[in-house]
Each structure stands twice: as structure tokens, then as C-alpha cells.
């Protein structure tokens, strides 16, 4: 059976791929307009490219940065955003599965211990019904630690927050880390080139 596997990030792919490979021929598909800001998006995509090259995995990726699309989809205050985020990503994946002749699709998000699995399952099943393909739900949370350990061993980038600017704020809002420690030169002390 041909299965399109929505990939949220490299660590989740490396952790779940062996399990999905037992079900059929897996075609990883990266579509994540929810990852912000731009440099974070590029870091996660680069980690996926590094993994794909190293392990000889053929990955299809939507490389366009999706900030504007994401902000149009979710409420301005970010409340209730996750089910919408799942619907968008799994909806696109379901259509990609149908267009490429796959019988089914799933997502590496099912290995996350942070995501709302009921909402993922609901979004996946609705997208499946609309596109005419099967959604495979498996609770793979037990794969998360292995995925992270493997990613660390391979030197892959491992993100510190879910993806969107709201989740980045929630992750860091209570920290007081001084991230800027550069030396500062005033205009008076700087010499002309
Ligand atoms: S917290 Fe994660 S799942 Fe929820 S909207 Fe943001 S990126 Fe999407």
C-alpha cells in the first residue's frame, strides 16, 4: 500500500518511519505553513534535507514559507488555532495522497507528546473523507524519545517549540534569558572605514 506521510520535522520522521514502513511504501511529504519565523522554517527544512540525504529517503517538500497563509487561517489572538492548523496540513496532505495515487496518508505528529491527538485524528479523518483516501491513525507517542535520541546522534536540528509564533511566545514568555551579549560600540567610538 502506498502511504503519504505528512512530516512535521526530521526528529519525528526518523522516530516513526520504521513503524509506518511496516504498513506499506512510505512517501514523506513536508507541508508546514505553521513554522515561524523564516529562519526557524529553514532550519527545520534543512534538517529534513540532511536526514533525507543521509538515509537516502525521498522527501517531497513544500518549500514556500507560509506565514501569511497561517495568519489568515487562525484567529488573531491565536485561540483555538491547533485544530485549524491540523486541518490545513492534513487537508493538503490528503489531497497530495489522492493526486499521487496513494491509498492512505498519516502524519508524524502522532508521535508527539505535546499535540492534541483527538484533534489530529478528527482532522485526518475529515480530510480523508473529503479526498477519498484513508487516514491512518496510530498512537506513536512511545516513538518520540527514540526519534529525539536518533536525531541528536545524527546531529540534526531539534526545535524548542511547536512551530507558530504563538507557540514560540508561550515557550519563551516566562524566561528572562539575556540572548544578546554582543559588544556595543557607540557612533563616537566607531572609526570610519
Ligand atoms: S501550537 Fe503547533 S499545532 Fe498549534 S497552531 Fe501552533 S504550530 Fe500548529
The N- to C-terminal Cα distance equals 64 Å
Number of distinct beta strands = 5
Using the coordinates shown, work out and report the CATH topology: Rossmann fold
- Tell me, what's the shape? globular
Give the radius of gyration.
19 Å
Biggest sheet: strand arrangement: 3-2-1-4-5
Q: How many structural domains? A: 1
What is the CATH homology-level superfamily?
HUPs
Bound molecules: iron/sulfur cluster
Any idea what the CATH architecture is? 3-Layer(aba) Sandwich
Which ranges are low-confidence, i.e. pLDDT below 50, for 5 or more consecutive residues?
186-193
Question: Mean pLDDT, nearest integer?
Answer: 93
The helical percent reads 40-55%
What string, H for helix and E for strand, traces the elements in order? EHEHEHHEHEHH
β-strand percent reads: 5-15%
- Structural class by secondary-structure content: alpha/beta
Major β-sheet annotation: 5 strands, parallel
CATH class identity? Alpha Beta
Question: Counting H and I runs of at least 4 residues, what is the number of helices?
Answer: 7
Amino acid at each position: 500500500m502506498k502511504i503519504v506521510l505528512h512530516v512535521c520535522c526530521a526528529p519525528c520522521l526518523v522516530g516513526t518511519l520504521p513503524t509506518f514502513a511496516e504498513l506499506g511504501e512510505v512517501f514523506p511529504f513536508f507541508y508546514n505553513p505553521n513554522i515561524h519565523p523564516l529562519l526557524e522554517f529553514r532550519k527545520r527544512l534543512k534538517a529534513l534535507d540532511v536526514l533525507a540525504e543521509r538515509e537516502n529517503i525521498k522527501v517531497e517538500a513544500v518549500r514556500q514559507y507560509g506565514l501569511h497563509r497561517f495568519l489568515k487561517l487562525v484567529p488573531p489572538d491565536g485561540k483555538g488555532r491547533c485544530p485549524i492548523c491540523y486541518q490545513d496540513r492534513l487537508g493538503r496532505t490528503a489531497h497530495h495522497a489522492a493526486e499521487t495515487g496513494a491509498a492512505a496518508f498519516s502524519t508524524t505528529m502522532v508521535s508527539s507528546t505535546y499535540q492534541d491527538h483527538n484533534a489530529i485524528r478528527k482532522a485526518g479523518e475529515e480530510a480523508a473523507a473529503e479526498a477519498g483516501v484513508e487516514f491512518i491513525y496510530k498512537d506513536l507517542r512511545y516513538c518520540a524519545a527514540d526519534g529525539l535520541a536518533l536525531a541528536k546522534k545524527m546531529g540534526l536540528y531539534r526545535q524548542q517549540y511547536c512551530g507558530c509564533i504563538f507557540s514560540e511566545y508561550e515557550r519563551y514568555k516566562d524566561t528572562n534569558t539575556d540572548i544578546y551579549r554582543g559588544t556595543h560600540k557607540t557612533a563616537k567610538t566607531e572609526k570610519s572605514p
